Amino acid sequence: MAEQQQHHSIIKTLRHPDLLAQAEALRPALHRQPVSPVALVDGRGQVIGQPADLARREFGPGEEVILDFGTHCVGRLSLRAVAVGSPPDAPAHLHFTFGEIIDEVVESLADYDGWLSTSWFQQQDLYLDVLPAEIALPRRYCCRYVKIRVVATSRKYRLRLESPCLTTETSADGREVATPAIADPLLRQIDAVSVLTLKNCMQEVFEDGPKRDRRLWLGDLRLQARVNYATFANQALVRRCLMLFAGVTREDGMVAANVFIQPEVIADDTYLFDYSLFFVATLADYVAATDDEETLQALWPTAWRQVELALARLDSRGIVQDSDSWWSFIDWHEQLNKQAASQGVLIYALERAHTLAGRIAPARQAELAATLARLRAATLAHLWDEAQGFFTSGAARQVSSASQVWLLLAEVGDAAFRRRLLTQLRERPPAIGMRTPYMVHHYVEALLQHGERQAAVAEIKGYWGEMVARGADTFWELFDPANPDYSPYGSRLINSYCHAWSCTPAWLIRTFQL
After folding, report:
1. In angstroms, what CA-CA distances link 194 with 202, 221, 306, 434, 500?
2. For residue 86, what is the DSSP state?
3. 354-403 residue pLDDT tens
């Protein structure tokens, strides 16, 4: 995810100090590891030299080198710069460019005209007044490739660059991950890339992406937490993130779509219908994984408030109202109408609320069961189009993949009905398709939920496997095989190429024993 395009007015929030204090007590330690480059490469990523060659090269103004660290890293760069020739009579000016993919350090950023800030581009200028210099860049960067360009010295000296090192950072402890026995070599590779994607997003919170947006989003958290339960098992980090969301809510109790943790915990002024409901689902998954009744006791009021707020958006038919006064994310697709998919998310979340209520608020269970039955019946009555064989969404009765997937996950209709819908979805995919690994994950989960293991494996291999074939070290925020350069932001160079919501094959493979 990224920030909304439009400007917001100030939204009043409520702080809950007891929850924030618990979140702070759960702040994790970061594990650090030095990583050296494995090669010097050209603008296509092809090897043109070995790391040892760097110390033998001398650089003058306009000259540059691209370091390849061999895999995706999150950390801080250090190196040594030495003057060669006459005593340095002017500062040295270096420009660093960091790229998750090779294109980020090769292509010009000057023509970017998107709506996300150019400050997301990973660059740094450095002026060295005294040489030799031990350089330790203060910012954390996210990269496989680092381009170092000498912008200026004087005519009297050149520069030698020595001992580059990235000190990586993550709160994930890789020693705890058990790798399942996976016979299929491509699935095995997909699993490894998924685990690295999650690892590099695990910082002081579960970040959506360590390059962008470097913060905690609820939709990403729900999926990251699931993968975490099956891999690193850092349950305390999930608990911390849930406490952060509950610790700063909108005045009416709605949880924000994302939160900042520096300089203090701040709820962003973005509130999403679907993401608020994912607080309920994430809490339900956490309780199922941990049996942590204390956390359930602390967070149930927040979860229940999300249910109340979402139900208030229903019209008299029991259908989520569609208007310009709300935002539900669902997927990055400019033409996608979100009403039907949001109806599915609501039913999905209510099922998880019903499960939680059985543990903490049994009196709510009958009410929730009746609401679920009413909403499923209303969905079939008002959103199903028998002639088309699909659910429709919005006033224009749009047919999209996202609508079908979320209403399948919500288990609307009986099992035979849903199997027919899945077949229809595979054989006649709607023109409004899926743009992100986030949405494709939910499609694969729907396949597995309905026993379509072979189709699910084929989708994982075809979609995430295609990213691997294109050189992915970690999985990307956005990937449309029919339009690989797609970006909702105005340029693929500002897309995130290590993104939390894309790491789910590791959970799918382990949970469904694929």
Report:
1. 13, 15, 30, 20, 9
2. S
3. 999 999 999 999 999 999 999 999 999 999 999 999 999 999 999 999 99
Cβ-contact 153, 127 below 8 angstroms: no
Kindly report the pTM of this predicted structure: 0.96
Provide the 8-state DSSP code for 215.
Answer: S
pLDDT of 6: 43
Residue labelled with tokens 């149930």: 300
Cα angle at 455 between 452 and 460, to 5 degrees?
120
Which of 66, 58, 64, 57 is closest to 39 using CA atoms?
66
What are the two backbone dihedrals, phi and then psi, of residue 456, each rounded to the nearest 5 degrees? -65, -45
CA distances from 36 to 82, 167, 434 (A): 19, 9, 38
Biggest CA pair distance of the chain: 84
With contact defined as beta carbons under 8 Å apart, do 412 and 401 qualify? no
Amino acid identity of residue 286, one-letter, is: Y
Cis? peptide before 263, omega within 30° of 0:
yes
DSSP structure string for 283-297:
HHHHHHHH--HHHHH
Q: Residue with structure tokens 């094959």? A: 505
pLDDT in tens, 56-79: 999 999 999 999 999 999 999 999
Q: Looking at 136-265, list the stretches that DSSP marks H as alpha helix, in order from N- to C-terminal side.
A: 185-201, 218-230, 235-247
Q: Nearest 5°: phi and psi at 249?
A: -115, 165
CB neighbour list of residue 213: distance below 8 Å, 6 or more residues apart:
1, 2, 3, 207, 258, 496
Q: Which residues pair with 216 in a beta bridge?
A: 259
CB-neighbour burial class of residue 287 (10 A; exposed 0-12, middle 13-18, buried 19+): buried
Find out whether 279 and 302 touch, Cβ atoms under 8 Å: yes
Give me the numbers of helices (H) and strands (E) for the chain, helices first please: 15, 16
Q: Find the helix or strand (DSSP H, E) in which 405 lies.
A: helix 401-409
CB 374 within 8 A of CB 343: no
d(CA 52, CA 38): 10
